[in-house]
Design goal:
Blueprint (H helix, E strand, L loop, with lengths): L1 E7 L2 E7 L9 H22 L10 H5 L4 E3 L7 H15 L2 E8 L10 H12 L5 E8 L4 E7 L1 H8 L5 H14 L4 H11 L1 H4 L6 H28 L3 E2 L7 E3 L6 E3 L18 E3 L5 E4 L2
Parallel strand pairs: 3-4, 4-5
Antiparallel strand pairs: 1-2, 1-7, 5-6, 8-9, 10-11
Helix pairs in contact: 1-9, 3-7, 6-7
Length: 286
């Protein structure tokens, strides 16, 4: 095992290596190793990706309750909305019911609309697969709240809270046409399954793979940086290394190893040496 000397930030470092570190690693091996590492990581990500499981619901469960309860009579095209609800059920297994009420139905008995929607769900359904989308109608506004059964909620919040996307889509359509809340909900339900059933990477796996990716990149960068440092390294006898300061720049060099200053390139002081039979320097005479 040979000893090499190199400099970094005007500091002297010694490295022991069985190979000649001044020669770069075979680019095929270096790039190949990086590609193989990334390919293995990509494979792990691929096999870890999960697809949300459609809620197990039957047609009998779907048809057991009305899809639309338009007590406020503001749904202009109930057939279009009912078709969107049916398609949403086919894609996700979640049973949606849209209810509309006049604000006077709850205003005097509840602090807000949400407790009323909660109670309406409990009175209307005896399962946990429903998603109630309720609209409160006043002379000035139509406000919306939703309540989800436990099983429906699991699918809608699995891995990430998809309800944020639901409100984002709904507000987009509502801003485009505020005159027809039924059409707004219908359009939202048509778009939302792509979010609900979107494949995802579990958070713990994402964290682990992100760390592995960072480690792979860090190792590759470290190898490249070491190659730059080792490029100008010099073979240095293990039993002899005397440092001397350059008179021009103040940097150090190894007597008998460097023929010029490794920092500024200036000529170094001349010395007389003693050496053994093999020519290895054993001492400095002056």
């Amino acid at each position: 095992m040979a000893r090499y000397v190199y400099f970094k930030n005007d500091e002297t470092f010694y490295v022991y290596s069985k190979r000649d570190i001044t020669k770069p690693i075979n680019p095929v091996l270096k790039i190949g190793g990086l590609i193989i590492s990334l390919a293995i990581l990509a494979t792990l990500v691929f096999v870890t990706i999960r697809a949300p499981q459609k809620l197990v619901s039957t047609e009998k469960e779907f048809s057991a309750y009305p899809s639309i309860m338009d007590n406020a009579q503001i749904i202009n095209e109930p057939n279009v909305l009912a078709d969107s609800i049916a398609q949403f059920f086919e894609k996700t297994g979640i049973i949606v019911t849209v209810a509309t009420v006049d604000e006077s139905a709850w205003k005097n008995n509840y602090d807000s609309f949400y407790p009323f929607v909660n109670e309406l769900y409990l009175k209307s359904f005896n399962d946990e697969k429903h998603w109630l989308i309720a609209c409160s109608v006043s002379q000035k506004n139509v406000s919306l709240e939703t309540y989800r059964g436990i099983e429906a909620d699991k699918l809608l919040t699995q891995a990430q809270n998809k309800m944020e996307k639901f409100w984002e889509i709904l507000n987009k359509y509502r801003q485009a046409d505020r005159s027809d809340i039924g059409k707004t909900i219908s359009s939202t339900l048509n778009d939302f399954p792509k979010t609900v059933m979107h494949k995802y990477l579990p958070t713990p796996a994402f964290i682990v793979y992100a760390i592995l990716l960072f480690a792979i990149i860090a190792v590759y960068r470290s190898i490249c940086e070491k190659e730059k440092l080792y490029k100008n390294a010099k073979l240095c006898p293990e039993d002899f290394s005397t440092e001397e300061e350059c008179t021009y720049c103040g940097g150090t060099y190894i007597i008998g190893v460097h023929s010029s200053c490794p920092h500024c390139g200036a000529p170094i002081k001349a010395h007389d040496y003693t050496s053994d039979k093999s020519g290895k320097i054993t001492g400095i005479l002056n």
